[in-house]
Specification:
With 226 residues, the protein is α+β, with helices and mostly antiparallel strands. It has a single domain, classed as Rossmann fold (3-Layer(aba) Sandwich), CATH 3.40.50. The chain is built from six helices and ten strands. β3 and β4 form a beta hairpin. The longest helix is centred in the first third of the chain and has 13 residues. The protein is globular, with a radius of gyration of 19 Å. The structure holds zinc ion. Zinc ion binds next to β9.
Amino acid sequence: MIIRDDLLLWAAAALLLLFGSWGCTAMAPRPPITAEKSIRKIVVFPFQLPPDTADKNACLRCPICGRVYRSGFVAPIIGPQLTTQLVERLQQVKTLTVVGIEAGEKERLKATVCDFGAEMDIQALLQAGQSRNADGVLIGYIFRYEDRQGSDYAVSSPASVAFDLHLISVPTGEVVWQAAFDQTQAALSDNLFNIDTFIQRKGRWVSADELAAEGLAGLLDTHMEP
Ligand SMILES: [Zn+2]
């Protein structure tokens, strides 16, 4: 099926903006990641990806928060790519010091942190934080990173991305902040309440990279103190 947004949708968007008071309730604001004042130095783990053997379109459970996501294709390059974007954004927060895990620990931790479906023993994470003298460890999971099939204005399948992030206090082992992004782009005709996003994207079908960048910015920037 070809999905297409045309001028009629733009006209509908304009009318909604002009006259619209459609009672859309905004999501309750989350505290910023920096709200936890005791955390000033963070060890950032690379984003973890589902194993190659994971079934697509199945349910994948986050080992930290237990939330269940639809699984999908994730290319191996996506882990380092999204981790780099995450670190770059965190480094802009003046009150945070961001460090990576020690090279020697990567292999030891790999089996522990990437066991999707099992509840994680976070002691290994906390040890990694202690070894870097950090107050917190930040770890994220990518569950789906599927690109659009089509072009800017017509797709047979839209981009679909899901990932989440968790900040764990090293002294207490508690998850002190977490956020999730789980979105498949929908046509405006399927959801008129998405009008702001539709306009921001100039009516285009975005790529998975664009969708993920939007998601990361939404999770971090809008809730971060400069
Ligand atoms: Zn989670």
